[in-house]
Amino acid sequence: MSCPDCFRGGRATGEPQGHIETLYGLPTYITGTSTASSTQSTIIFYTDAFGLELVNNKVLADAYAIATGFRVLVPDIIPGGPMSPDVLTMMDQMGAPVSLFNTWGQIKRIAVTLQVMRLVLPFLYRSYPGYAACNKASLDYARKVKADLHPGAKLGAAGFCWGGNQSLRVSAQPAVEGGSERLIDAQFCAHPSGIKLPDDFVNAVMKFKTPVVVAHAENDSTLKTKQVEESEATLRQKVGNGQGENGFNYEIKIYKGVAHGFSVRAVPGNRKEEDGADEAKEQAIAWFKRWL
């Protein structure tokens, strides 16, 4: 499995405050308010692999809407549908220690592993985050949202795991094909999956001077910290320090001692992950309030 941590983590508690309706042809979880007012900005929340099936995504979207006052849209956008949250439990079962001499325990582990592969392999085949079909669906949706905003309202993008790929890549796109206006006015992503470094970081920042934040998990199993640090060095060389120098604003923060998925699937009771998730949430909220 290319990214086992993409399918691990905990389930959040809390009752979603928004509702689901069809928006631009896709079931969309809407929180904050149903419509954008003349001055209200909107955030598109690109989920992890579990989409709207996992309550964590809705609860976190609610937190963004409450803290910023903006409308938050969470589209059911993953081609072929999201991963079943049942995989979270299966991954825990796979990782549980079993004695080599516990024959029944080993048989159960093999059976669970086969169940996981039966779910994960088709998902990766149809919905790997870097696939053109995934990126096109995310881009088309964002452009439709942007086109419907009132003058003065801005569009943000937040992405997690699978969705981090989407939010970075739409940030490198114009509001309309061939245009010069940026599509995304502020971007936050945490532990993005399937990205190409340094290109995806550089393009998200440079193409349209989009303000970009990346929350990186130090122990990410697929996106190595060294790669992220080298990409940040490339950005500094190309555009400056990210604090407005040459008109570019970006921030790359490494969260120590946490793994891929921490910001949206922190395991309850794991203090380091819970603290990291809270800090990443506040980082995103502050960024969106600043730029939107």
UniProtKB/TrEMBL annotation:
Q: Which GO terms describe its molecular function?
A: hydrolase activity
> Which residue range or ranges hold the Dienelactone hydrolase domain?
36-290
List the transmembrane segments: none
Quote the Gene3D superfamilies the UniProt record gives.
alpha/beta hydrolase
Among the Pfam families in the record, one is DLH
Which superkingdom?
Answer: Eukaryota
Protein name stated in the entry: Dienelactone hydrolase domain-containing protein
Give the species this sequence originates from.
Answer: Lophiostoma macrostomum CBS 122681
